[in-house]
Specification:
By secondary structure, the chain is mainly beta. The protein is built from no helices and 11 strands. It has strands at about 5, 10-15, 20-25, 35-40, 50-55, 60, 70-75, 80-85, 95-100, 105-110, 115-119. The strands form 2 sheets. Strands 2, 4, 5, 6, 9, 10 and 11 form a 7-stranded mixed β-sheet that branches. Strands 1-3-8-7 form a 4-stranded antiparallel β-sheet, with no helix packed on it. The N and C termini lie far apart (about 40 Å).
Length: about 120
Amino acid sequence: QVELVESGGGSVQAGGSLRLSCVASGRTLSNFRMGMGWFRQAPGKEREPVASISWSGDSTSYADSVKDRFTISRDNVKNSVYLQMNSLKPEDTAVYYCAARLGTSYIYWGQGTQVTVSS
């Protein structure tokens, strides 16, 4: 079993930055070659993928809406994954979740952290 705990959310004005963190406990993610991802869900909308990173950290992908503004990274020694969010926009307002992937499926999820961007 893996427990994921997100932190770093908050309220920020448009154009600002936030850094989300996600710490895993219960398993060493890299030992199980677990990829990691960040997702978000805005009020009244479906959850959508934001960014993902391979277990080694050498491969990343981003949603078009956040490319060139968000950066995903991981520290396998700390069993953690991060999401640096720059140039935030009001439409980035959502609950952000981290998730751990085994194979092609995300099987462990955190509880989420709220990000609110005001104009």
